[in-house]
Specification:
Shape: globular
Structural class: mainly alpha
Number of helices: 8
Radius of gyration: 19 Å
Number of strands: 2
Strand order of the largest sheet: 1-2
Strand content: under 5%
Largest sheet: 2 strands, antiparallel
Helix content: 55-70%
Length: 246
């Protein structure tokens, strides 16, 4: 898949401090997405690169798997499939929904599963499988919780700098997911804008305004995902495959 545009976040490698492109958004058929992405990320590029570089110094000085190799391998096998599936969904399905302004698609992609019902309690697994299937392809329940739990693997009795770096990017992603979900609900008339949503003001934002904000959120989320992957791969044992960037 040819990515749209020339927008990238700079990631500095711990060994050589060289700049590599991690996330790109371009457009052969959606120039608006490209221009918004470039504007949204131009300032982030410098600050993100600097913060990742600083974080790398801290992360690299810590053991990569404080709880032991066996525990890390178990967590890797348990959580990374959900993380990787989430990345693929973000790059393809969610990108398509954002580029097209498909509000129903964005809402479904970021939706959380419903709360446990009385009917769920009658099921053998308590309705876990049923509700999990209703979670969006890049939702907190399906992807971000796994990212959070995997980040915790790199700490033991105290929280390591590596875990803090990874969890900070998960929180950035939560803000992106919540923002996209909110915007989709407003666009579909399911929720009011409220006062000052996205800095637009008290009046209901237009579809065009909402689309620009969601496009900027998409870029922010892509950068956060790649920063998380960069931190996760740092110091990973050689027998475990490094996770791919978007």
């Amino acid at each position: 898949m040819k990515l749209l545009g020339a927008l990238s976040v700079g990631l500095l490698t711990a060994a050589s401090s060289s700049l590599v492109g991690a996330f790109q958004v371009s457009s052969s058929n959606k120039p608006a997405l490209q221009s918004v992405a470039m504007e949204a990320t131009r300032k982030e590029f410098i600050t993100t690169s600097a913060s990742i570089a600083a974080g790398t110094v801290l992360v690299s000085s810590q053991p990569a798997y404080a709880r032991g190799r066996a525990t890390l391998e178990q967590s890797y096998d348990r959580y990374t499939p959900r993380i990787l599936d989430g990345g693929k969904f973000y790059k393809k399905e969610l990108y398509g929904a954002v580029a097209k302004g498909d509000w129903k698609g964005i809402l479904a992609a970021t939706a959380e599963p419903p709360k446990k019902s009385k009917e769920d309690r009658t099921l053998q697994d308590g309705g876990v499988a049923k509700r999990a299937a209703q979670a969006g392809g890049f939702s907190n329940a399906r992807v971000l919780t796994a990212m959070d739990l995997y980040a915790g693997t790199f700490s033991d009795s105290s929280i390591s700098p590596k875990t803090k770096t990874m969890k900070a990017e998960v929180e950035n992603l939560r803000q992106v997911v919540d923002g996209m979900n909110k915007a989709a609900k407003i666009a579909l008339g399911e929720e009011s804008a409220g006062s000052g949503l996205f800095g637009i003001g008290g009046k209901k934002p237009s579809s065009s305004e909402l689309a620009k904000e969601v496009q900027a959120l998409y870029v922010k989320g892509g950068n956060a995902y790649n920063a998380y992957i960069f931190a996760a791969n740092d110091g990973l044992p050689v027998q475990l495959n490094k996770l791919p960037f978007l």
